[in-house]
Structures
1.
Amino acid sequence: MTLDAALKDYVHKNQETFLKDIARLSAQPSVSATHDGVEECALLVKKMIEEIGGTAKILRLDGAAPLVYGEVLRPGSDRTVLFYNHYDVQPVEPLELWKSPPFKPEIRDGRMYGRGVSDDKGQLVSRLKLIESYIKVDGTPPCNVKFCFEGEEEVGSPHLDKYVAKNEGLFKSDVVVWEYGNVDAKGRPVVGLGVKGMIYLELVVKTLNRDAHSMNAAALPNPVWRLVRLLSLIKDEKGHIKIPGWYDHIIGLSSDEIKVLREEPFDAEGLLATYAAKEFIGGMSAEEAKLALVAGPTANIAGIWAGYMGPGSKTVLPAEVHCKMDFRLVPGQVPDELFDSFTGYLASNGFSDVKIEKMTMEPAARTSYTSPWAQATVHAAREIFGVKPVIELSSAGTGPLYVFSRRYGADAVDIGFAPHDDAIHAPNENIRVDYLEKGMLWIGEAIEEYLAGARPKG
């Protein structure tokens, strides 16, 4: 254990205050999908950085949510840790399923409930309060610290790379503490090492200039049937994506990574039961499903709408149909190249008339579990939680980790305190209040161990 006893004592004694700060930030709406409260929340985040003793400023780009940058420097330090988090949240709907108002955080039965308390405002505040603890106890953090808090993560971080490119010197760091981090159902901390990439797009198929009576279906083309034929070209029944070249440049897992993956727990029966699914896609085995979640690309239909969808009947032939899709990507796949392959494939099959709106383009990124930063977080997790942590080679989800790994070569790791059942993106999002202290100490211990390993010996 490398953490100072006084620091641990300060963190322990101030848990109630830290929880109040999580509630304070979470009470401020900041729904990026609707822009509700985003500006006000950015200003509050800036203020909270300044309150702990840091310097902060608001960065702006036309058409983008504000990005909050902050720093606390340690005189003479040549090492920098960057904390990436986001202050925007998901919409709260369906509102009627919340047991307490989503923007009035409430603690009951050992948990705090409210939109954003886990994803990602609770995590954000935990990092601020850790650095505040260092300043209160030691007068300075253990190294240079930077904060990158964006307001568009929940809508695909469309401007983060532009912000960083415009202010490249600001965000340079040696390692990154990534936005999230959680504890599994058995109380084991999860070391997250990567994320999948994504292409998110919308297809619009239009065959008429207005809706028609369905009696005309005998003669007029239906755009929904045309979309069905289009979608059948993308993926087969076993989940294999049929677009030419889709798998050509994938960087597969190494033999060592496969060994790590085998040790990673996977509740296959629980996953199926949660969603009442009879089997995994294409009848794949539990081990195949586990591998696919970490290292397999996907082609998902996120939503389709057309024609009449109200109660009763309305005999209509719709004029157009909309379909939103997300393609999850793995290391080696380049979003722009794959998008071009997709559009070319559709055109070659007679669908050049289909309108395709490109919405999100993010490559995958992954930190090697053998890197000094990853190893420091693994060892720190064991020290703080007293159990062997779970190493998650890659999340099945997506985030802008590539921005920092590609531009700076900085390794990034998820370290945090969210419970496995925190209901993020859903009603009654929550955190366990007893995990906050360990989550903060885990970050501190990881940084201390990384710095100790990085210092020249002798």
Note: The mean pLDDT is 95.
2.
Amino acid sequence: MKIAFTAPMKPLNHPVPSGDRTMGRLIVKALDLAGHEVTIASTFRSWRKDGSDQIQGAVEEEALRETERIADTWRESGYRPDLFLTYHLYHKAPDWIGPALADRFDLPYAIVEASRAPKRQKGDWAFGFAAADAALSRADAVAAIHNADVECLKAVVTPDHLGVLLPFLDASPFQQAALIGKPPAQTPLKLIAAGMMRQGDKTKSFQVLAAALAHLSKDAYHLTIVGDGPNKDHILQLFPPERTTFLGALPQDQLAAQFASHDLLVWPAIREAFGLVILEAQAAGTGIIAGDTFGVPDIVRDGETGLLSPEGDAMAFAANLKKVIDDPTLSDKLGQAASRHIADHHTLAAGAARLNALLEKTLQNHMERGKRMPA
């Protein structure tokens, strides 16, 4: 199948790495694995930090000019995709391009990862909210990336068009790193945290982690921190230097080795959609201590591959850590189960199968839409 792809939240060639960019690239990789021909229709980014009718109205005008450019290119080249796929839209990053091209060329239109915050229906983001809703209503199929988003999407997407496409990863490098074998866990536990060091929710996650660790005895753990960003100095001051190793940002191959060599990934996941590092660590055979935010319970089996606590609750997070400190064999059990869990449910092949099912639903619903259209 020929698929035209766009990612209005963050294009795949964006220079700043993030879990969102990685997930977009993984979707394209999984589609390639499934035998589809993916073309990046546009690298236009509709996301804006600030919202208003004026700001987002101007973005819409830019998007529609980009739509004309793409349409002209397709007509001149004779290219016509079988389906248009948009990855990640919401009120800050609506999709005007996909719906317009789908209407113009009579294409099935699908969305992967959509979220909806009804409180944004009024105020500075009302324009973008309405535009995102229009795209969701037009789509032939919409896949949330976790179950927590489904409830809000039900208000604008009918049940036969709505589903969940659980996240996945290229597990191979992490599984290979796990083959080195781990010695049995013992205190001090080897903990690892990985996250971008920017203002907002990422910094809040590090703050909750620091508060939780403050409740543990000094000889209970050693923490390795992976990441970098403008808030690095502030974040590193939160952790005792004698029990902390800071590695900075690491390439993927080194990250896999680090996950495999630690006992637990510790990440409070404040406002995290699901946390790609949580998938990566499990693939490397490392158990999880995390907050139960949004999609985290969809990828971590609480009590089996990790221990989850209420979002932002440092005391509960510390209590889960103490369970493993008191019984280090629990770390080994979590890690072994985590490795099996990823192999069974969250590999690139599993993602390809889920995407194929979404594409089939999109085609079927598009056919049904055609039958309902007046002649």
Note: Residues 2-168+348-372 form a domain with the Rossmann fold fold (CATH 3.40.50.2000).
3.
Amino acid sequence: MPSRPLRARKTRAAIVEACRWLVEAGLVQGTSGNVSVRHRGAMLITPSGVPYERMTPEDVVAVPLEGDGMRFEARGGNQPSSEWRFHFDILRARPEVGAVVHTHSPYATAFAICREELPAAHYMIAAAGGPTIRVAAYATFGTQELSDAALAALEGRAACLLANHGVIATGPTLERALWLAQEVEVLARQYALALSVGTPVILDEAEIARVVEKFKGYGPRRGERAKGDAAG
């Protein structure tokens, strides 16, 4: 079996690769967005203010999931992402979640700016766990208030929008969280285009409940790349 340090290095490298894929996919820009992964009682999370093209596995910050999240282990003076708090609280509150991806993807963020949830205009919304992708109430980035609002919007869901901010997608693995982050953006783009064409027909909750059931086990298998491209 690989040693614990080796596993940690592989997870850190996967986080860096995932961040670079998010840029290539157009889901984040500059240093916006962040990624975290649960690893042996700790949260491994992207550092604050480090451009993705320069980020290395050694830049990833470890935050123990015990305690208040204010202690962390980092090299080179790195601080955890400014959004560490909602990553920390989600991983603490949702033991089934293994990874959290936060993006500022354009279409989904546009709906977040309008504070409009995404409805079931397409059955793929079931990938997020229900008939809507909710919008969390607005709060200043990096605050406990934002974390609390995100947790409320994520109740019974795997993804949410953050008002005037962006998107949170979660998953049992990094692969799944990346896949869902991209699916949320595709859903938002489809809905925006449908609104420009005419009046979208929204699927009812019973249909989405059927699709949610059919989706159990659906999505990228462990080790695959989201949409054939994302890191895992």
Note: The beta strands are 34-39, 42-45, 61-64, 99-103, 135-136, 159-162, 166-171.
4.
Amino acid sequence: MVFNSLAFAIFLPIVLVGYYLLSFKGQNRFLLLASLFFYAWWDWRFLFLLALTISVDFYASQAIHRAQTKKLKLRWLRLSLASNILVLSVFKYCNFFVSSFEGLLHTIGFQVHPITIELALPIGISFYTFMSMSYVIDVYWGKVQPEESFWDFALFVSYFPHLVAGPIMRAEQLLPQFKKERHVTKEMIRDGLALMLVGYVRKVLIADMLAGYVDEAFLNVHAMTSADLVIRLWLCAIQIYGDFAGYSDIARGVSKLFGIELHLNFATPLLSQNITEFWRRWHITLSSWLRDYIYIPLGGSRNGEPKTYRNLMVTMLVSGLWHGANWTFIAFGAVHGIALALHKLWMQITKKPMPKAFGTRKWNWAAPLKIFATFNIFAFSLVLFRSPSFGIAWQYLTRIVELVPGIHLGTSLFVIPFVGLTLALDLAQYTGIGQRLVGGMGPVRRAVAFGALFALVLIAGSDHSLPFVYFQF
């Protein structure tokens, strides 16, 4: 089931009514059943994988807590990690590893015909696996106590607003909310509906409207001029942002209706003035997960500059591989690893401190140039993210470098309203203007405004309902 479907439009009100009618003791169990139904709607057969992850990690965390020696704790941790990595390897990376090995043997003169298994990719597997793994690691580190209730832990992993595309929540953020009685206020419902509305606008009125223009560029590279290809890369950046940030907004909004807060996942990343700031504002929960469970355990920046750059590169290569089982995704991660390392090196050469606090921004005459440069680093890296092969990516970049003359004025002008709408939503959302505006409306005006915008979204999305981009991850 997806958020932009008729099934979800029927599902959510039914779940909300049932949730509000139940006492606190019944709400968690009801949410768990609703979440399992939500996941099973796509393919009920993959419920067993979800159940496997939940069961192994729940009992491994209990065993880690009870173990008397560090060696025994480590064994249980390794069992949990091995189980999660095995599931990911089989269902997401198996054919990738096999085909890569076949290609390597072919280059050195060996002809092999390996057997590959065509398996459907379980939706959301990368998201809920990372959540569950972080919980077990935190128990091993002593950061959290193991959850005593199997059912509450199952809800933590499978909670349907975040289940298939994040945010990637931590145990200390979400489990305490399941343990206490929740009171859903009018303000929560108002803010939740507003977040959902913003998310649907991002998805339907921005991302889905741009999808065809972006697809056309990658399907017909040789029919495009250089300027058109650059413009469509800009559109691609806005499309992917609108799609994923839209999902996160809807997820957070839906969760608010249940009185449960999910972590902010995007914070005006397209206004970042350097690549380090960009990754602190883009897919925040993944970036922080990679920092805490890959970068810092590798040593972070504690062991000298060469190892710091190595750790950055390894972390971003893992990020690329997380996004998809394709060498283009790994190359996407490598590009950002290099960009982050170069920015860190530049800050050291100029003796400027790295930005420390999230949300800190300095605006001066150079800010627009820095924003434009950072945006283009991201946009051009999407050639790798979006291309199915290096061949297509090479054709795309080569066509741009060839400086093929000409430009379609209509497409160029087409960028402007989408950039404007994206920035307007960002500024309204993250400066608090939007919340103050909605809060200042009376109930009738708010209902009319929300209803009109939801109707516009429904009309715009009635002819096509595109899947969310990050569902493939």
Note: Residues 123 and 472 are 7 Å apart (CA to CA).
